[in-house]
């Protein structure tokens, strides 16, 4: 039993050591709808292990309008570089220090910003005897609208919530009225019983039996 107890007592320490050795990286979906004149972020996360060999990371962002050729709009090769395009002056680098997140922000959105954005991440892993390259891509289709569009599911959920609140309120009122009537009826019955008891002549009232001593 002692070795098992020692093993279980050391589990928290092992968990902490494991968390320190492995990175916590979660790939999440990017925003795909936005309103004109607002700001948005094109999320691009490319997870990697922190204990990898030394690597060089290069990022390219492309924009592609419907049925048009892709246009290079942003490059990161150690320093963020905005490329000449209709988005010039409105792009913002939002990459993390470890370059697992290489997201791109767009400010002051225009209707013609609608299109497909491609995030291309290339990592050159420098081993002792050779260099290995890995390239990953992520596409984000962004739609820019003039006004905020209501989500049908959210509207239905809100309506159902109000209906449920009304139903619960009515049910609570009914329960309160029922309980009040029940308590009132019990009080009336108790008062009637007391009146009937007081109306009985004293000689006819039951008297408690007196215990007989030995």
Description of the molecule:
The chain has about 210 residues and is an alpha+beta fold. It has three helices and nine strands; from the N terminus they run ααβββββββββα. The protein has helices spanning about 1-10, 10-20, 150-200; strands at about 35, 40, 55-65, 70-75, 80, 90-95, 100-105, 115-125, 130-145. It has a six-stranded mixed sheet with strand order 1-9-8-3-4-5, with no helix packed on it. The longest helix is centred in the C-terminal third of the chain and has 48 residues, at about 150-200. The two termini are about 65 Å apart.
Q: How many helix segments?
A: 3
Q: What kind of sheet is the major sheet?
A: 6 strands, mixed
Going by helix content, strand content and strand pairing, the class is: alpha+beta
Global outline: elongated
Q: What is the number of beta strands?
A: 9
């Amino acid at each position: 039993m002692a070795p098992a107890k020692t093993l279980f007592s050391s589990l928290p320490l092992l968990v902490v050591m494991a968390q320190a050795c492995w990175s916590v990286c979660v790939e999440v979906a990017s925003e795909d709808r936005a309103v004109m004149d607002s700001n948005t972020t094109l999320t691009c996360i490319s997870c990697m292990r922190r204990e990898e060999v030394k690597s060089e990371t290069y990022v390219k962002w492309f924009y592609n309008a419907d049925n048009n050729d892709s246009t290079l709009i942003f490059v990161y090769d150690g320093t963020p570089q905005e490329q000449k395009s209709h988005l010039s002056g409105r792009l913002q680098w939002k990459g993390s220090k470890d370059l697992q997140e290489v997201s791109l922000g767009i400010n002051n959105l225009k209707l013609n910003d609608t299109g497909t954005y491609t995030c291309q991440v290339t990592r050159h892993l420098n081993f002792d005897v050779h260099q290995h390259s890995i390239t990953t891509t992520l596409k984000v289709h962004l739609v820019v609208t003039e006004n905020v569009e209501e989500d049908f599911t959210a509207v239905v959920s809100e309506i159902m919530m109000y209906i449920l609140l009304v139903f619960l309120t009515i049910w609570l009122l009914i329960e309160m009225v029922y309980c009040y009537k029940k308590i009132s009826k019990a009080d009336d019955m108790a008062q009637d019983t007391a009146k009937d008891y007081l109306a009985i002549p004293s000689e006819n009232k039951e008297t408690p039996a007196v215990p007989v001593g030995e």
